[in-house]
Specification:
The chain is mainly beta and 640 residues long.
Length: 640
């Protein structure tokens, strides 16, 4: 990525809405924020999926067909495609077969190798053992990833993907001879791939790893299967977050499959048990369900009471824990939500909550979006006014992890109704975004899609009105798919436009961009500015959701910013205290004295003019990229 920052027209166009609506801005041209260059590496952070729904058991009577068994070690061969196995590097290129006493497949790097039951990643590339389904059917994938060279090294990261969608992942530390086990069931179309990926830790020294998956493949009988999910609706927590109080949790189950789920399935609530699907550890209670037809959502189910204990906790809600339903996707039966008891601010004032949307046509817009006061909207910038002109009927959720009610065409829009093309989804308080640009944008190198809300100047909320005030911003986010090459970058971040109300127009405005996901896995804090000729200058504060930051702080229970994809909504939460805002102001005044030297130092003088979540791809000439994400229940509050 070039060190010269690319221009993000999202900001200039976002503020142009205000310029168009409010005469106070006049004819000022509003600049963009930048996708900052790689500045530092966040060492030591290993990101894993918060929970993974592994399933065991056999298919119900009436669904069974002749099964075939495949094993990485016993099927190992010198021919690509033998027994449906392929041997690749992280970019999808074929490894080279080396015959001899210990035959192996080797990449362009000497240490990037795969042999019968083991693998070793390269320093600059992963190694991938791929298996392709001979026809449509269901696979049961089992095995264990463990260290095979415990005398040295710093561990590895392993993942199992269905095409680009992560089904399972784990980090295995050096010397871990027990390892991490997997037991997955999922459906596949003919020719669809399961990828077993091995990635280095900090480096690839001594990273020999036993990774010998077994696949039992059962051909599809043609009978439509149901698919029970819990992550279509956020878990609601009932009660106050104080030690000793009673909390209850509620949510629903939905069948997004094509077949009916028979009566008799059981849902389970667990507190602080990541394996709630398979064990009763810290179970709160269970719920029994009647039959589910396609598209049916259950009545609300509430857990038994739990007496709150101080600290960070996670509640889990899992469907079909007794495994009586054969499903088309067995990897999406659980969801979780993390929360903190104790140490919570005494007062909380909700400033914004993502609205419930029942009509996507009034919420999703191409470029340019219509003007409006206090408007929440989903905008596909730089993709044309017809970017959301078509109702989209294909399964966008395969990339975003969010599946709205059937028919999909009522809740999904794009420029074309073609599988794998850029599309957006909106239902309730959830937004799904799949960005797969086929051409570079006409202006600059950025392809932004943004969920945003904006306020007329002078009417925005002021989150720092009390001596102990801080702004808190949160949203449930998942990024199940991301693929970039040749310098492209994908990232997802919270976005806040802040304005000094003692100044006219946007004279004292600046941006705060807090990253959640970045394919570079780098999360620097920065202060930069747009210096394009003729632009009205705006500083941009860049930060991330992690510990040790200067400008923002992570709220307890939030996951950290990450560079690898994950499935399942995780609630990212960060805060900006008065003191942190004053650090931003002081640094901006010091760095840009001629244009910002006289801005107010009083936090109570600052208002929010734009808030949202930005999904963006940096897309230079000759690159390729795609990314799928979903956002749920975006909220902003003042706590004091």
């Amino acid at each position: 990525m070039s060190s010269k920052k690319p221009v993000d027209k999202f900001i200039s166009r976002s503020l142009s809405l205000l310029q168009r609506d409010f005469i106070v801005i006049g004819k000022e041209r509003v600049p963009s924020f930048v996708a900052w260059p790689v500045m530092m590496f966040l060492a030591g952070v290993v990101v894993t999926v918060a929970f993974l729904a592994s399933r065991s058991g056999t298919l119900q009577g009436g669904y069974a067909a002749a099964a075939q068994t495949f094993q990485a070690s016993t099927d190992f061969s010198g021919a690509q495609g033998y027994k449906n196995w392929y041997y690749l590097d992280g970019s999808g290129g074929n490894l080279t077969y080396i015959a001899g006493g210990s035959p192996l497949w080797r990449g362009s790097e000497q240490d990037a190798i795969i042999w019968p039951g083991n693998a070793h990643p390269g320093n600059n590339t992963d190694v991938v053992r791929r298996w392709k389904a001979p026809e449509a059917g269901t696979v049961n994938i089992t095995g264990t990833v463990k260290d095979a060279d415990g005398g040295c090294g710093d561990g590895v990261n392993a993942s199992i993907k269905k095409d680009a969608t992560v089904l399972w992942s784990a980090s295995v530390a050096n010397g871990n001879m027990v390892g991490a086990s997997f037991n997955l069931i999922t459906s596949l179309a003919g020719g669809q791939a399961i990828n077993f990926v091995l990635n280095k830790g900090t480096d690839n020294y001594c990273d020999t790893t036993q990774f010998d998956p077994k696949i039992v493949f059962t051909p599809d009988t043609g009978t439509p299967l149901p698919d029970l999910i819990t992550n279509h609706q956020d878990i609601t927590i009932l009660g106050t977050f104080n030690p000793g109080t009673s909390l209850r949790f509620s949510s629903t189950v939905k069948n997004i499959g094509a077949g009916t789920a028979a009566a008799g399935s059981v849902g389970r609530w667990c507190i602080d048990n990541a394996d709630c699907l398979n064990t009763t550890v810290r179970q709160l209670n269970i719920a029994n369900f009647n039959a589910f037809g396609p598209g049916v959502v259950s009545a609300l189910r509430t857990s038994a009471a739990w007496t709150a204990a101080a600290g960070s906790h996670t509640i889990y809600w899992c469907a079909d824990v007794t495994k009586v339903i054969a499903e088309s996707n067995e990897g999406n039966n659980c969801q979780s939500k993390t929360f903190t008891v104790g140490g919570v601010a005494k007062n909380e004032k909700l400033l914004y909550r993502q609205p419930v949307t029942s009509n996507i046509d009034t919420f999703a817009f191409g470029d340019p979006p219509p003007p409006g006061d206090n408007k929440s909207m989903l905008i596909l910038w730089q993709q044309g006014s017809d970017a959301v002109s078509k109702a989209v009927s294909w399964d966008v959720g395969a990339y975003t992890g969010f599946r709205p009610s059937i028919p999909y065409s009522a809740y999904q829009r794009g420029k074309v109704d073609v599988s794998g093309a850029t599309a957006v989804q909106v239902q309730g308080r959830t937004v799904g975004i799949y960005s797969a640009p086929t051409t570079r944008p006409t202006i600059g190198d950025l392809v932004p899609i943004v969920l945003q809300h904006y306020y007329p100047l002078g009417t925005g909320p002021r989150p720092w009105t009390h001596a102990a005030s801080e702004l808190r911003m949160s949203a449930g986010i998942q990024v199940p798919t991301a693929s970039v090459s040749n310098g492209a970058v994908g990232y997802v971040q919270f976005s806040l436009g802040i304005r000094d109300t003692t100044k006219s127009g946007i004279t004292g405005a600046f941006w705060i961009q807090t990253q959640v996901f970045d394919t570079r896995n780098t999360f620097p804090e920065s202060l930069q500015g747009d210096d394009c000729p003729g632009c009205t200058f705006l500083p941009i504060i860049g930060s991330a959701v992690r510990s040790g930051t200067k400008y923002v702080h992570m709220i307890g229970g939030s996951p950290v910013s990450r560079g690898s994809t994950w499935t399942g909504f995780q609630r990212y939460m960060f805060g900006i205290s008065r003191a942190e805002l004053q650090k931003m102001i002081a640094d901006i005044k010091n760095k840009y004295p001629s244009t910002y030297g006289n801005i107010s130092t009083r936090p109570e003088d600052y208002e929010i003019v734009i808030l949202g979540v930005l999904d963006e791809i940096y897309y230079p000439q000759g690159s390729s990229a795609s990314m799928g994400a979903a956002i749920r229940n975006l909220e902003v509050a003042e706590v004091y």
